Amino acid sequence: MVDPTIRGLRVKHLAIAVVLLAPAGLAAKAPNPAQAMVSAADPRAAAAGVEMLRAGGSAMDAVAATVLALTVVEPQSSGIGGGGLLVYQKTGGRVPATFDGREKAPMAATEALFLDAAGKPLPRGVAIPGGKSVGVPGNVAMLKLAHAKYGKLPWATLFGPATRLARGGYDVTPRLASAIAGSATTLARQPAAAALFLHADGTPKTAGEHIVNEALALTFEAVAAGGPAAFYAGANAAALVAAVDHAPTNPSTMTIADMAAYRAKERAPVCGAYRTYRVCSMGPPSAGGTAVVAMLGQLQGFDLAALGKDSPVAWHLFAESERLAFADRAAYGGDRDFVDVPVAGLTDPAYLRARAKLISATGVIAHAVPGQPKGAKPRIAPESGEIPSTSDIAVADAAGNVASLTSTVEGGFGSSLVAGGYILNNELTDFDFVPEVGGAKVANRVEGGKRPRSSMSPAIVYDKNGKVVLAVGAAGGPTIPAQVAKAIVAVIDWHLSVQDAIALPLIFTNDDTLVLEKGPFFAAMETALRAMGHATVQYPLGLKANGIERVRGGWRGGADPRSEGVALGL
């Protein structure tokens, strides 16, 4: 069955056949550039964005319609029941606007939210399902805030494709079917979720089956007509609060007042240099943007271009920079409205050069620890517990406006709770469960009204003339900053297309162990990496990235061959 939303669209790059057949690292031959482009994790969602561009909409209109459609067709990863971070560059500008739609903890939440009666942290599998992991969703407020500044089409128009998908139904993809099967036990405990994704006998719905979500269509219609007020107050707010406060497991303390008080915010971007380029991403509560800028800043002094993408030394240097940046991220990242985050110090070129001096081309740092950037109080880095999920969208319109938006419900199917037809996030488990280490308060501890630290790193790259040349973002929990930095290095230093850069395998640091994405690429390097002193393990990382790049004659898109993503152009 061909969904009517994508019938008649031309796939400019990436072809659906590539998603199904090409191994990581291989891409289809690039077609002619497009004048406008949408890259997203599902072709039906990308088509929703293209529909807005065809109607004369801006990149803002397209990115909004795309994330609304993802609410329907990729419910395990993102949507209006979660939050997002948006980086937006208006045509001709050199500094992007960034918008914070990160979820917030209820005001009644305390440092003990994820501690048991003995004061010990709950196992993540115990903490996630049910109400207490749910933060007040931020995507609707964020989209409205950004649309008011950069949208061209009426607000209600943005909801058309998603409403049609919800009401007319959509076919389950292999990736969604796998997610349902993996979460079937948890989904079965939540009646509204079970009704959507499981059969009456409790067995999971499979690829090719058709799901109709009339409740979500009605929610879209209400928010289209009434704006964010129809989401954060009235019947929807009451239903959401009832779902989390009366959850069969881990009931929450969220209130109608928590919903009504939510505000999305425009934040200052985080920017840094790489070679002759400038890279801008999201600042706190994201610690992903600072990590991307830090990694690239630390790698400035190494000739990765000469080493090439097949060099174990190049990947060793990348991994060492990643370890240093992630140590700082874990120690200092948090909600800037609650804790001092030394962004200027963490991204200061002199500080990054000093950190880079810790990196040797022949051996490993024994243990990567946080540095002492200017303006920072000494902190200990607690363990991170983010789960790979999320979704990214990259858009350029014909006028040259560019958007990079990362949206998430945190883990697969979030909390597994449903309100108004949409999945509710488990974003509060992005807080560090232990509030104090060694007598010092943890920056990312739970506090009422606080946003949890995020790894989301939507990024825009500018050339020396201030022209946008690349927009890229990723999904996959703490792997996100590494995926984004890898793609930027691959495009700039190794001259890969955005498609090949995204498809390139990843090396990820898990404390002092290097996780090599399983496959022949890193298997060939593992002996050399171990000889440098790395402890390594091969693992099939759950990666998913999307991006667009400016080329002669227009835009070219890339979508992760590990996913069902696609880039559609006009």
Provide the β-strand percentage band: 15-25%
Biggest β-sheet strands, sense, barrel: 7 strands, antiparallel
User: What number is the mean pLDDT?
Assistant: 93
What global shape is seen?
globular
The total of helices stands at 21
Order of the strands making up the biggest sheet: 6-3-2-10-9-1-22
Poorly predicted ranges: 1-29
Rg, please? 22 Å
Find the count of extended strands (DSSP E, 2+ residues): 22
Structural class: alpha+beta
Percentage of residues in helical conformation:
25-40%
Distance between the termini: 24 Å
Keywords:
570 residues, alpha+beta, seven-stranded antiparallel β-sheet, six-stranded antiparallel β-sheet, 21 helices, 17% strand, disordered N terminus
Structure in words:
- There is one protein chain.
- The chain is of the alpha+beta class and 570 residues long.
- The protein has a domain at 16-266 and 389-406 and 422-441.
- Helices cover 34% and strands 17% of the residues.
- It has a seven-stranded antiparallel beta sheet with strand order 6-3-2-10-9-1-22.
Topology record:
Layout: H1 16-21, E1 37-40, H2 43-54, H3 59-73, E2 83-89, E3 97-101, H4 124-127, H5 139-150, H6 160-168, E4 170-171, H7 174-188, H8 191-197, E5 210-211, H9 214-226, H10 229-232, H11 234-245, H12 256-261, E6 265-267, E7 270-274, E8 277-281, H13 288-299, H14 304-307, H15 312-332, H16 343-346, H17 349-356, E9 391-396, E10 402-408, E11 418-419, E12 422-423, E13 436-437, E14 440-441, E15 459-462, E16 468-475, H18 480-492, H19 498-503, E17 507-510, E18 513-517, H20 520-523, H21 526-531, E19 535-539, E20 544-551, E21 554-559, E22 566-569
Parallel strand pairs: 18-19
Antiparallel strand pairs: 1-9, 1-22, 2-3, 2-10, 3-6, 4-5, 7-8, 8-15, 9-10, 11-12, 13-14, 15-16, 16-20, 17-18, 20-21
Helix pairs in contact: 2-3, 3-5, 3-6, 6-9, 7-8, 13-15, 13-17, 13-18
